[in-house]
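Just curious: can you write whichever protein you like plus the matching structure tokens?

***
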Amino acid sequence: MEPRKTCFVYGLFGAAPGVLAPPEVFAEPNSRTPVPVLTEVSKQSILPKFRLIRELITPGPVSAVLWNSDGTKLAASSLLSSAGSLGLSFPSPFGNLITIWDDHWHVFKTITRTEPFFELSDTFAFVGNNRQIAAPSSMASSGLAFSVFDLETGVIVRELPGSHSDRPRNVNAARAIVASPDQLTLAVTFGRALAQPVALYSTRDWSKIIDLPEGPRTRAEMPEVLAFSKDGKLLAVGRIDGVVLIYDVDSRQVIQRIDAYERGSGVISSVAFNSDATSIAMAAWMSASARKLPAGGEEIISPKNLVRVFRVKDAARIATYGEPFYPAGAIEWTRDGKYLVFITATSTLHLWDPSRPLLTERTIELGQGAFSLAFSPSGESMAVGVGNSVKLFRLEPQLNSSAQTKAGGSCPPPAFGFASRRGERPDVRSPYGLSPAACPRGARSPAAPTVPAPAVAVAAAPAAAIVTVARAHHVTARIPAPAVPAVAPAGRLLDRVDRLGGAQHA
């Protein structure tokens, strides 16, 4: 029976399920802001580690974060709050304030208007050599597309009209506003009430350069998100129907079309080129589905494969994050191009190695609604909008230090003989495919590690432990065992070995 599509509505800033693990992120000693409890889970110890270095408080829920081109300023747009019938405060989908901090984390300027001027998914851009910000027009306007603010004074210095002056704001207003790395070109998408092409503007004189060719013929093909390559030569346009068009900025022609999500099954929510623009990553929103069970009732099937990586030159898919989860968004590459960082379910921050998609991942449960992230130009810091704050993280490399083997030193972790490539057989010297390395007398034995494998993941559980076996992020068994090896399902990792007295969620 074909599963029927079921659309799930998420609270804008609903809290994620609680996690009992102790936090593994810390604030710098000179940080003056409180540190929230975050939970970090790693499936591979060699991945860089998230370290929370600061939290910047905002007047409302954060909808977008952005660094300027030299990393000396950070900006965040904040949504309004609306009072409910019981006197409770709920986030509004509209906002009227952008906060800009300097490199000492002092508020440099707040840009505010009486009327809201952006929505939850709208973006803004630094322009004019970082001296201005381009943002959507006021909700009170009709024929305007976007406004340009001076950062020193906070006043509007220019307003640009839309292409249909006789139509309302839901046609003319800019939604996605993205500047090229040199800030000389601005790419803009417009209101959802009418299918319109992406427009390019010159920030030198604010003239419209062109409406890009191969624009949408219907609203189903409307552009949703934009991203320039690091050198500014390419522009990616992610559409509602799951297609990504890649334009050559100089010729303004489509050089690649990627049908990223089959039959329009996913709405592109974020796109990002790697450092040399040879690969492009994308995330999508997709509905869950429900399937009727023979015995009655329904089974909810979570969408999966929402984060995908493609090669630019031939549109070949080269990596897929295959876990089932709810909406994915805000995707970025680390500066070295090795890892992807993205947000799922508006609450979980992922660090993922697409070159080893089944083996390497690090996650942080932020515990609140998170919609946006951005790396600083140097790649050293990452800003994440979470609820009424911007959290600043640093990615710190984990040293894969060699183990000491002399007396009194550390015993190296066991050398496990598992199938590292399809078709190989595990080491049969152990009934569980384990081949512990010899440990010199007097050496200290570390806790048994969790060992990933492409087909089967095996780990020796310590005495008096609870072994959690997880498949597709859902706990399928919790087995009290004094010293029993735990085997994860094929193609999955053993997420966690939880010691009694400090149990954690898998």
Notes: The longest strand covers residues 89-101. The helical segments are 169-172. Residues 169-172 form the longest helix (4 residues).
